């Protein structure tokens, strides 16, 4: 696979003029906590192809909320992290600038869709038919390589691995991790580096995908927390549904946990429900054996029993050769 190039990765570009909204070249392609993502079809240059960009910024209606300053700062932090990363399975940095209203704008490589959206679409059109095992293993391999790079080269804990933060290009030609706004620095031993992050730094994450030790507020969080969330992403490709039951999901979504984990009562209930989500009631043939092995290993309640990303990459590479 050719190494992905990020032509603007060596500086935070502040002179890119982007009109958002309105613009005939823009369309909304996603959203998150207080942010919206647009696809920008850049104006053509004669004789030169210009790929589209994904533009991430604060939702207009949230501009005057108390959290707007925090979200703008998070976008800046994400840009500073993303511009330093260089890996074919991590979304490419393009530019960082400000809109006409002064809000921060992060421009990134545009991908076709998120895995979470693809899961929803597959469930709608095909019912509860899991992805082919080869597709699941391809996604797993790409994400595992990205996590290996983050954990062992960039020394970063992603802290929010979920299907909606896995971007897919084309028909699963390549998958890329995105959304680095809540990353934490790591020591070489794979633990949160408190000397850089601060003693009060927390693994924020999304409760539905978070590891048991995160939900229970354990102080010793390692790269294995990301690996648990990775295991849940594998489960999503089998079940095509969110990783908790609808009733509990409604209880949690009725509260605002955008920037902190839920209260201890909800944490305990989540931990009970999500120690290991049950497999869907579908027939999984022997071709899914490795998929299931990855799922069970990564979602072990005991974090020490989960594989690290580097080992998982090796397992998947060996499987490709057999």
From TrEMBL:
Domain of life of the native organism: Eukaryota
The protein, known as: Lymphokine-activated killer T-cell-originated protein kinase
Originating organism: Diabrotica virgifera virgifera (western corn rootworm)
Entry keyword Kinase: yes
Pfam family, one: Pkinase
Protein keywords: Kinase, Transferase
GO molecular function: ATP binding; protein serine/threonine kinase activity
Keyword Transferase among record annotations: yes
């Amino acid at each position: 696979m050719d190494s992905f190039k990020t032509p603007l990765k060596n500086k935070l570009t502040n002179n890119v003029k982007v009109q958002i909204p309105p613009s005939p070249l823009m369309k909304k392609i996603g959203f998150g906590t207080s942010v919206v993502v647009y696809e920008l079809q850049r104006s053509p240059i004669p004789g030169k192809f210009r790929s589209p960009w994904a533009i991430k910024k604060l939702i207009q209606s949230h501009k005057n909320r108390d959290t707007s300053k925090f979200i703008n700062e998070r976008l800046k932090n994400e840009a500073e992290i993303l511009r330093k990363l260089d890996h074919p399975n991590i979304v490419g940095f393009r530019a960082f600038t400000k809109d006409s209203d002064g809000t921060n704008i992060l421009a990134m490589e545009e991908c076709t869709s998120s895995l979470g959206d693809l899961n929803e679409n597959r469930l709608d059109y095909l019912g509860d038919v899991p992805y082919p095992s080869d597709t699941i293993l391809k996604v797993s391999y790409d994400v595992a390589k990205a996590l290996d790079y983050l954990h062992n080269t960039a020394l970063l804990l992603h802290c929010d691995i979920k299907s909606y933060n896995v971007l897919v290009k084309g028909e699963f030609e390549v998958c890329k991790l995105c959304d680095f706004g809540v990353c934490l620095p790591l020591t070489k031993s794979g633990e949160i580096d408190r000397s850089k992050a601060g003693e009060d730094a927390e693994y924020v994450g999304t409760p539905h995908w978070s590891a048991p030790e995160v939900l229970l507020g354990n102080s010793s969080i390692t790269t294995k927390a990301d690996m648990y969330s990775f295991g849940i992403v594998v489960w999503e490709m089998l079940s095509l549904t969110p990783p908790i039951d609808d009733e509990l999901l409604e209880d949690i979504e009725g509260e605002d946990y955008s920037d902190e984990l839920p209260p201890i009562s909800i944490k305990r209930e989540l931990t009970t429900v999500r120690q290991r989500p049950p497999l869907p009631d579908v027939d999984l043939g022997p071709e899914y054996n490795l998929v299931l092995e990855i799922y069970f290993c990564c979602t072990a309640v005991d974090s020490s029993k989960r594989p690290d990303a580097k080992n998982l990459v090796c397992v998947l590479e060996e499987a490709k050769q057999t």
